[in-house]
């Protein structure tokens, strides 16, 4: 039995979707809503985390909200530990961290 390239691509795509499932792919909300929320919280990642937990609470997904909150808090604790380790390793000779005041990037990159 021969398989065409199109059929092969379809099979591969289906198999990949079985392995990795990304919830936003099935989103039914207007994409503008996402942009409006991001803009209103000034693209602040911490506020985005809080919004997600709050939204889950608002739709009565309390158990999931608690799990997400714990996951985020653990991520933040790990991130702070890693940032402290990095800062200690990258101090200048005078003991001050490197100056990044000339950084001109989007706020979400900080």
Structural summary, described in words:
The chain has 110 residues and is mostly helical. It has one domain (5-92). It is built from four helices and no strands. The termini are far apart.
Gyration radius, in Å: 21 Å
- What portion of residues is helical? 55-70%
Low-confidence stretches: 102-110
Put simply, the count of helices is: 4
Name the beta content range: under 5%
Residue-averaged pLDDT, rounded?
A: 76
N-to-C CA distance: 54 Å
Structural class of the secondary structure composition? mainly alpha
Give the tally of structural domains.
1
Shape summary: extended
SSE string, helices as H and strands as E: HHHH
What profile does the largest beta sheet have? none
Quick structural summary:
The protein has 110 residues and is mostly helical.
Topology (elements, then pairings):
Layout: H1 5-19, H2 31-40, H3 45-58, H4 62-89
Helix pairs in contact: 3-4
List the defining traits of the structure above.
mainly alpha
